[in-house]
Amino acid sequence: MRNSTTGWLLLAPTLFILVITGLLPFVYVLSVSFFDWNTFAQNPDPQYAGVNNFRRLVFDAAFLKSLWLTLKFTVFVVLSQLVIGFFLAKMLMRDMPLKGLFRTVHTLPLMIAPIAVGATWRLLTVPGLGPIPHWMKEWFDISYILSRFPDQAFATVVIMDIWHWTPLVTLTLMAGLSNLPEEPLEQARIDGASEWRIFWDITLAFLKPVLLTTIFIRLMDALRTVDEVWMLTGGGPGAETRFIGLHIWRVVFPKTDYGYGSAMSLITLYLTIVMCWFLYVAMTGMKDKTR
Amino acid sequence: MSRVTLQGIRKSYGAVTVLKPIDLDIADGEFLVLLGPSGCGKSTTMRMIAGLEAITEGKLLFDGRDVTAAHPRDRNVAMVFQNYALYPHMTVADNIGYPLKVAKVAKAERQAQIEAAAKTVDLTPYLARFPRDLSGGQRQRVALARALVRSPGVFLLDEPLSNLDAKLRVAMRAEIKHLQRNLGVTMIYVTHDQIEAMTLADRVVLLSDGAIQQVGTPDEIYDDPANLFVAGFIGSPPMNFLAGQAKGGRFAAPGVDDLPCIGAGSLTLGFRAEDAALAEAGRFSGTVYEVEPTGESTYVVLQMGIHRVNLRCDKKFRPALGATLRFDVAGRQCLFFDSASGQRVR
C-alpha cells in the first residue's frame, strides 16, 4: 500500500502538468464546441447549441475545401519526404570526402524556425525582389506570381515543406539504415534475391519501426502546418493554400467564432487520430500478412 | 554438387593483405573445414567463395567454370551464417521457401520442397512459427533447411555451431556430418574449434595470419604437423614443446638425456601427452607441478627446466607434488621443429 502511495506521489507533478496542459484544455474545447459563442455576435454570451456546430461543419464548403487541401498537401509532402529522405540517407551513408560537412549542411533547415523559413521563402518568391520569379521568367518564360496562380502557390508551399522537413526523415532513416543487420541482407543475396527484392522483402521489414515513427511524426506535423504557409502565402491566393490550421485560426481569431472553431479543432484532431490508426493497422497488417 | 578450385586467391583491403595467395582444390562431395584462430582469414576465404567479398586477385572455379566475379545468386551456393541470419518477419516455412520464392518456383512445388527440407531437419511441427519462437538449435536447423531447399552445388557454413550450448553443439555436429554424407554435397565449413574440425572434416585447411599452414586429413594434421603452429593448435591438451640444442645427432634440453635427433642447431622437440609413458629408465625427467584428473585419465603437469609438459597417465595415478618422474617417448613420436622458422625438421 505504501509503495503505491509513493508511486502516485512521484507521478503527481507530471500528472498535474498533464492535466493542466492537456486534459483541461481538451475538456474546455470540447465543452465550448457545444456552444454558440461569438464575441462579435448580437449576443456575445455563449449559448448552448447542442451539436449544431458539428452539423454546420459538414456543409461548410470553406472548411471542406481546406480539409481537402490539407490532405492533398500532407500526402504530397510526406510521400516526397520519404522518397527523397531515403535516397539522401543512402547517399550520406556512403564513404565520400566531406561526408561530415554534407551531413551537417543538410540538417541546417531543421534548425530554422518555421516562421523564419516562411519569411525566407517569401523573400525568395516576391515578384520584383526575389530571385525565383526573375529566373523563372528569364529561363522558362513563366510568370511566377504566388499571389495570382493557385497551382504555383500550392507547389511552392509543398516544396518549402519538403525543403524544411526532409532532413528529419533523412536523419531517422539514416539511424534505421545504419542499424540494419548485415547477415540477413547477405543471406538474401546468396538466396538469389535481386537488390530490389532485397529492399522490398528484407530491408523494408527491418526499417518498419523507424518508418512508422517517421511517418507519424511527419503526418501530424503536416496536418497542422500553419506558420510557414501563413508567412509565405497567407493562405492565398484566395483560399487556395488555406490549410486547416490556418482556417481554424481565421475562424477563432479574426472572426471570434469560438464554438465553431472548437468544433473544427476537434474534428481535425479526430481525423488525425483516425488517419494514424489506419496507417498503423495498414503497416502492421502488412507484416501480419507476410507472417 | 560442385568441385571448387581456388587458384592463387588473394584478398587485401587497400595496402593491408588479409589473405595471401592460396591454392586449394576441393573435390566434389568433400567435407572441407577451414580452421584457424580468429582473424586468420578463414571467414574471408569463405565469403569470397560465396561472392560476398570481392576477390582481389586469383581465380575461383566451380566445376571448371570461372565464377571469380559472378554474383552470389549465380554461383548456386548456400550459406549458413553464425547468427543464422533468419528473416525475423517471416515464418519458418517462408524462411525456408524464400530462395525458391525469389527463383519464382510455383507455389505448390515450393510447398512440397519446403516440407521435404523441413522433414530432413525435423522441423515439420514448427513451419508456422516465427524465428523468435524457436530455440537456438531449432533456428540453426531452419538455416540449414533454407540452405538445403535450393539443392546447392556448394554448402558454406560459417561457424554454424558457435552460438549453441556445448551439448547441443555435439548433437548438431553429428547431424551436419550425417546430412553431408547422405546428400553427398560439397561442404565448406569454417570454425575455430579444432574438435569440430577433426570430427567433421574429410580434409582440414589450417590457416593462420592469412596463409595456409597445412592441408590434410585430420589424422595427417594431428600426427604429422608441418610446423609449430599446427602442432600447437591441434590437440587438447596442445602438443608439448621443449626447446633445446641439437649437436651431432643428439638433442639436449633440460630434463632430456641422450635423445637421438635429426638436424642441428636450435630445435624444438614436440610430443603429445598420450605418447609419453612413465618409465623408470625413461630419457625424460621432470618434477610434478600439478595433477589434473579428468575422470577418464589423469593429466600430470611436469616442470622441465623453463617448460611445462602434460603427460596422460592412468586415471588412478596420483603422484605427490614436487616428486621427480621419469618417462619416455618413442622415437617416431618425437617431432623436431626448427626453433627459428617453426618448420618441421624431417
From TrEMBL, chain A:
Q: What is this protein called?
A: Sugar ABC transporter permease
Q: Where in the cell is it found?
A: Cell membrane
Does the record's keyword annotation contain Protease? no
> What is a single cellular component term in the Gene Ontology annotation?
plasma membrane
Sorted alphabetically, the keyword list is: Membrane, Transmembrane, Transmembrane helix, Transport
Xref: CDD domains: TM_PBP2 (cd06261)
Per the record, membrane topology reads: Multi-pass membrane protein
Listed GO biological process terms: transmembrane transport
Primary localization: membrane
Q: Which residues cross the membrane?
A: 7-30, 67-89, 101-124, 153-177, 198-220, 258-282
Entry keyword Cytoplasm: no
Read off the Gene3D superfamilies from this record.
MetI-like
Family recorded in the similarity comment: Belongs to the binding-protein-dependent transport system permease family.
Where does the ABC transmembrane type-1 domain lie?
67-279
The UniProt entry, under InterPro entries, shows: MetI-like (IPR000515), MetI-like_sf (IPR035906), Sugar_ABC_transporter (IPR052730)
From TrEMBL, chain B:
Q: Which UniProt keywords apply?
A: ATP-binding, Nucleotide-binding, Transport
Q: Does the keyword Nucleotide-binding apply?
A: yes
Gene Ontology biological-process annotations: carbohydrate transport
Source organism's superkingdom?
Answer: Bacteria
> Which terms in the Gene Ontology molecular function aspect does this entry carry?
ABC-type transporter activity; ATP binding; ATP hydrolysis activity
Pfam families documented for this protein: ABC_tran
- Say if the entry is tagged with keyword Manganese: no
All residue ranges annotated as the ABC transporter domain in the record = 4-234
Q: Name one GO cellular component term.
A: ATP-binding cassette (ABC) transporter complex, substrate-binding subunit-containing
Q: What PANTHER family would the database entry show?
A: MALTODEXTRIN IMPORT ATP-BINDING PROTEIN MSMX, OSMOPROTECTIVE COMPOUNDS UPTAKE ATP-BINDING PROTEIN GGTA
What family, per the record?
A: Belongs to the ABC transporter superfamily.
| Listed NCBIfam families | PRK11650.1
Mind telling me what this protein is named? sn-glycerol-3-phosphate ABC transporter ATP-binding protein UgpC
Q: Identify the species of origin.
A: Fertoeibacter niger
